[in-house]
Design goal:
Radius of gyration: 17 Å
Strand order of the largest sheet: 1-2-3-4-5-6-7
CATH superfamily: Aldolase class I
CATH architecture: Alpha-Beta Barrel
Structural class: alpha/beta
CATH class: Alpha Beta
Mean pLDDT: 94
Shape: globular
Largest sheet: 7 strands, mixed
Bound molecules: iron/sulfur cluster
Low-confidence stretches: none
Strand content: 15-25%
Helix content: 25-40%
Order of helices and strands: EEHHEHEHEHHEHEH
Distance between the termini: 46 Å
Number of domains: 1
Number of helices: 8
Length: 243
Amino acid sequence: MTNDQLPPIKGFIETSLLDWPGQVCAVVFLPYCNLRCPYCHNHQLVLEPDTLETLSLEEILGRLTPLQDWVDGICVTGGEPTIHRSLPALLRKIHEAGFKAKVDTNGTQPEFLRYLVTEKLIDCVAMDVKAPLEDAAYARCAGVYVPVDIIRASIEVLAKAEISTMFRCTVAPTLLAKSDVYRLAAQLKELGAENLTRAEAVPSLILQNFSPADPMEPDLKNVNPLTDEALSRMQDQVNHILG
Ligand code: SF4
């Protein structure tokens, strides 16, 4: 298989303790995304990936193979990995090289996600849920219209999948109110997220603070993120809702 039959890789981190709870993983970044979240800090990867060098998978696996006693798996992130129809080939290569595979996704390709799960191509998924499952709120946080039925379908695929799963939500104060976040938690519970196969001891819905450092939407540079205490209180309430 040539590199032409694999998705282009536009970034690589050799070891991360943050991207896969309980695991040491490498991270590869794929370009492009079908959403335009105003807080996205990977916008060069999303909007101008041609300005970034394309890395060879062989070279990456060559660097990781000697670290196999340390590195448990490879996290494929982006951008949005599931818009690449050649993603399964990349995941197979990762497994053939002896590593587990995690995919980060925005959940907009439920049937593709179902395929990856059914074919056992992924060992862990982190799905970003942007807002409560209501069209207006989702469009506000995703930067484009997203029919929330497809997000609901992806949640249902993962809630039934017997692979390590986590949902994540980035909280930017001007985009999401506390009540939005709690409504999302309740909706996830209704869709079965309380019975997830979880990654280590992490909550079913992990709240992340937004960073004003370099967002896609420049106006967000002037917005203060929540304090750690406020985010932690919100996380406690989300955990309570999800049980
Ligand atoms: S934050 Fe939004 S725009 Fe950025 S990569 Fe993720 S889904 Fe795409």
